[in-house]
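Please check this.
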Amino acid sequence: METVLRLLKSPDQDSSASCRVITVVTGRAASAAADLLSSGDYAIAYPNSTLLYHGIRTYGQRPLTVQSTSLLAHVLRISNDYYAMELARKIEYRFVFRFLVLKSSFQGFREENPTRVLSDLDCFTGLLASRLSQTAQQVCNKAKERFGRYNALISNVMKKETPAAGKRIAQVEARRLKAIVDFEVSSNKQTLEWSFKDGGLSRLADDFFLLNEYLQTHTTERIKQWCKSLGKFALTEAEQLEIAAIADETLRTERMIAKVQPILQPVWSFFVALCHALQEDENELSATDAYWLGLVDEVLGEALPTLRILQEYQADPSPAAALSAPPESAAS
């Protein structure tokens, strides 16, 4: 799949820009085919098509040993993390577009749930769930669990973080591991039989990789690009006018990021968690599921908002202009 995609996106011998790749699923796209579909610059799904996403798997002929299985588990973990982040890079603008599409419904969702204090992310995931199949809802639930784990780890571990200047990477990681150990012991204090020997050690490793992943994505320039290119859609009209009034372009951009990042950062973290959730188990999705999760741009024949419709939109001419327009010739 990667080889085919690289060939499609390669420039010609004159170094011309690569062509725009449009991918379409008419019946079923599974595994590598699903990844290829989502990798398109514009991805289209037929209404009754299905998509299957899952993690990396391997097959071997040799007997398994402790050493080989440990290495294999490490390789599979790294591969799944890599493909999750690659998927995130490819579909990020589709996903944030879904957030912006549903944003106008957040206030109504809050009014329907008056007893709960709901963040924008809570509203988004709640509205998203109502539009998904049961299988897709399970994927979102796994993503929310992973996102919740992000928050718990950050609030408990990062308070013990010290400046890394002058320290080796191993020293920084050692302090994080110690903080994660304390976090796990505290989190499981009500379960007397809990121990690192019986499952806790693997949880410790999961937490360690999860924390590093969060820190990498939290400081990424991609979230800042989200803020700069799409931030105005996340702000109120008054906030947009306030930022537009700043004369200095650098200060205006900094103000935009400062305003928008607290709104989009949780969405970004949930989105990354979602891409990882798609690498777990077997996730059979409908075309509509794929649209709302940002895996495709459009479902043919469905009345769903798309960037193509926005870009192609042209207002109808006024009746007066239509009457005064000269008739087209038969040849034209």
The beta strands are 22-25, 28-30, 42-45, 50-54, 282-286, 298-299. The first strand starts at residue 22 and ends at 25.
